[in-house]
Amino acid sequence: MARWEPGAAGRLREAAMELYAERGYDSTTVADIADRAGVTARTFFRHFADKREVLFAGSEELLNHMVAALTAAPASATPMEAVTAAVVSAGDIFDASRRDFSRRRYAVIAATPELQERELIKMASMTAAFTEALRNRGAAPDVAALAAETGIAVFRVSFERWVAGPADVPIADVIRSTLATLAGLTA
Amino acid sequence: MARWEPGAAGRLREAAMELYAERGYDSTTVADIADRAGVTARTFFRHFADKREVLFAGSEELLNHMVAALTAAPASATPMEAVTAAVVSAGDIFDASRRDFSRRRYAVIAATPELQERELIKMASMTAAFTEALRNRGAAPDVAALAAETGIAVFRVSFERWVAGPADVPIADVIRSTLATLAGLTA
Fold first, then answer.
1. Nearest CA to CA, how far is A34 from chain B (Å)?
2. A161:B142 CB<8 A
3. B34: containing domain
4. Inter-residue contact B156 to A149 (CB < 8 Å)
């Protein structure tokens, strides 16, 4: 995975997160973000469709990356092993350089119902994509749906723990720990 | 749990489901539903706030019932046992008399993005309520969140299986079977 590019897009992300935290998402405009980043609104729109996409532009990359990992799991992997490979692969994207943005993004979303809904829809899309990828691997429909739902549940809980926890713990480690907790819970 | 009342509310529900299936949710109005049920729009609004609430009016009852079951689980119950008691208690509400409505409701929601979003929000509310109830029982935050997410995942998958499966299988049996599948998946 490429590191986030420096330059205008990075400055716009940083400016947006500052403003969302300072005055709230609803009270921040694209013009405010561009001003703070020292670029024009035209430049903003070269990078993001709107102020919401500053927060969600990475979601498709994440989805594609996780589904690729699921699909690439060995044919011998069980559905849960394939899902585990998928969610653990999130660590390739959510590396240490993205944790600060992720933590602040999480706080903005938690404070804004419209964004929470958007996040729920993104998570549902991931669940659907996992289910489809598992069925393509030959999993029975019920098993595919359950493994997909469970994998996304593990991802959500792990993500929340990662952004709230110590900075030096990789998200992949948190995910593995959450999976171990789950195995204990359901045993 | 009381059976659904006969009379105007029942006729309005039936009329709404017929119309949503025939012409789609978006193209159905409250006036259409009231006409089909043989009542006035004024009567409709005595029972439901709007056409969406015909589909979601039972959600709060379900949430409260499941949280009560979770809270009433023995103090010795593990978090997952308490969550299991909660989701299995959905069978008190989703009895055989509600399966036909539930099946048709599910199809309408699956066909309508606006309703899917609403359903996702309801499920997220349930997850939050389960998490809080588990924390009130003394569960650690991470364990509470994970058990709650997992329980709702089991509920969603089971509900889908129940409405698609044979009419004579109670939802509580489907939930127990899904929980057994989950234990096998995560072992």
1. 31
2. yes
3. 1-55
4. yes
